[in-house]
Design a protein that fits this description.
- It is built from 11 helices and 6 strands.
- With about 240 residues, the protein is of the alpha/beta class.
- It has a single domain, classed as Rossmann fold (3-Layer(aba) Sandwich).
- A 6-stranded parallel β-sheet has the order 2-1-3-4-5-6, with helices on both faces.
- β1, α1 and β2 form a beta-alpha-beta unit.
- α4 crosses α5.
- The longest helix has 21 residues.
- The two termini are about 25 Å apart.
Length: about 240
């Protein structure tokens, strides 16, 4: 008598600030055979808590989750709200601390609001052309197809969406306690040349998660899934198949 294999839990993929399914599209062909993959849209949410609640409303009783950049912070908020529903978690090109107090936090706010001002006055594309230059490996700045794919992705969102998502990021909670509490297969991953969320930040996250894996993607910046999709997909598959 044969037994059907246990059903594979679906994978929820969470994009980051001003991103959509395009950030995950390059890795989907490797991940989707035999596994349902769902890319989340944050809609009009203006807090990480609301983004997580929306995801949990649409998700089944148990699922795997991978988040990129702000999307990984949403994944951590999902773990804060409903840890029993998450079977495994991957955190890509991200951070875990709240906005810093004092001058450092004020500087972050100023830089983010300056980009918002460009988006409002000159359009999202003008903002994206400025913002994207720090997001990829320096050698990819001349890769017209990659750069246009990222800029076009940002351009699909409005300045109003940018404002809502910036508000969510600036009000982000410290997730140190969430990291320490994770008890499922976990992966922390970033691009070697990620200047927004550097390797040292991911090493600190890795140190807080019991038994987590840490992988650094060579020749990639903050947009690692779009810059080095084969390497990222391979590492995600290893995480998905880990016992």
């Amino acid at each position: 008598m044969s037994h059907d294999p246990a059903p594979t839990e679906p994978l929820f993929l969470v994009p980051g600030l001003m991103c959509d399914a395009a950030v995950w599209q390059p890795v989907l062909p490797a991940l989707s055979p035999g596994r349902a993959c769902h890319v989340i849209d944050h809609g009009n949410a203006d807090s990480l808590e609301q983004m997580a609640r929306q995801l949990l409303t649409t998700a089944p009783a148990r699922f795997a989750i991978a988040g990129h950049s702000m999307g990984a912070r949403v994944a951590l908020e999902v773990l804060r709200q409903a840890p029993e529903r998450v079977s495994r978690v991957a955190l890509l090109d991200t951070g875990y601390l709240a906005r810093a107090a004092g001058a450092a936090g004020e500087e972050e706010t100023h830089k983010r609001l300056a980009l918002l001002d460009v988006a409002r006055k000159q359009g999202v594309r003008a903002m994206a052309l400025q913002w994207v230059r720090g997001m990829v490996h320096p050698q990819r700045l001349s890769d017209a197809a990659l750069m246009e794919a990222i800029v076009t992705m940002f351009e699909r969102k409005s300045a109003e969406t940018f404002e809502r998502q910036l508000r969510a990021l600036l009000q982000r909670p410290d997730a140190s306690g969430v990291l320490r509490s994770i008890q499922v297969p976990s992966l922390v991953m970033c691009g070697r040349q990620d200047s927004w969320a550097p390797v040292a930040q991911h090493q600190a996250m890795h140190a807080l998660i019991p038994g987590a894996a840490l992988d650094v993607v060579e020749n990639a910046g903050h947009m690692a899934p779009m810059e080095q999709p084969d390497a990222v997909a391979s590492l995600l598959l290893r995480w998905l198949n880990a016992q």
